[in-house]
Amino acid sequence: MSTDRASARKRGRSKNDPGRPRRIVRAAIMVIAEHGVEALTHRKVAEAADVPLGSTTYYFTGLDQLVEAAMDEVAHHSVAQLREWERNLPPDAALPTALADFVVTSATEQREYTIAEHNLYTVSLHRPSLRSAAAEWDDAFAAPFIARTDSLTGRMLGTLTCGLQMQVVLREEEPDRDKLEAFVRRALVGSVA
């Protein structure tokens, strides 16, 4: 048995590896988080996914296709994370406090994914093929806030949350939870705060 085949079998991977496309997408997300979309290459993704270079081009013929798959994955992850947060939130929870905690968590425990999310969201400005996915992501991201408030307030909270996440991940220091809570509280004046 060749070393390559033994190594692949040892890792539980083979040519017919059904999880390979998803691992490639997740590796692309990590490359984007670390280096940005403009530095994405099939070679970097293959190294990060621990797959042969040919696998990345087999499943994703061009980088645009890989970027679209990465965008779909981070949008799904982002919305699922927010929905889970909202499901676990008691009905009487103080929204400013809870939302500040959500932003802190996304900027610390989920930092890499949050960076990749914002990289991919921003790149949709220059890639028309991604714009509808970004708009759908906005709508889905606002939905849990709308469920807690109303349509206008929910959309405002979705936009505010994205902006706060971006600001927090841009800084190297620990997020100031009290300041984040104050932003949300001020935004909600006259709504539900």
Overview in brief:
The chain is an all-alpha fold. The chain is built from ten helices and no strands. The protein has one domain: Tetracycline Repressor, domain 2 (Orthogonal Bundle), CATH 1.10.357.
Q: What report would you give on this structure?
A:
With 193 residues, the chain is mainly α. The chain has one domain (18-187): Tetracycline Repressor, domain 2 (Orthogonal Bundle), CATH 1.10.357.10. The protein contains ten helices and no strands. Keywords: DNA-binding. Residues 18-78 form the HTH tetR-type domain.
Task: Identify the notable features of this structure and list them briefly.
193 residues, mainly alpha
Reading the helices and strands in chain order gives HHHHHHHHHH
Query: Going by CATH, what is the homologous superfamily?
Result: Tetracycline Repressor, domain 2
Level-2 CATH architecture: Orthogonal Bundle
Number of strands: 0
CATH fold-level assignment: Tetracycline Repressor, domain 2
Query: What is the total number of structural domains?
Result: 1
- Mean pLDDT, all residues: 88
Radius of gyration: 19 Å
Count up the helices: 10
State the secondary-structure class. Answer: mainly alpha
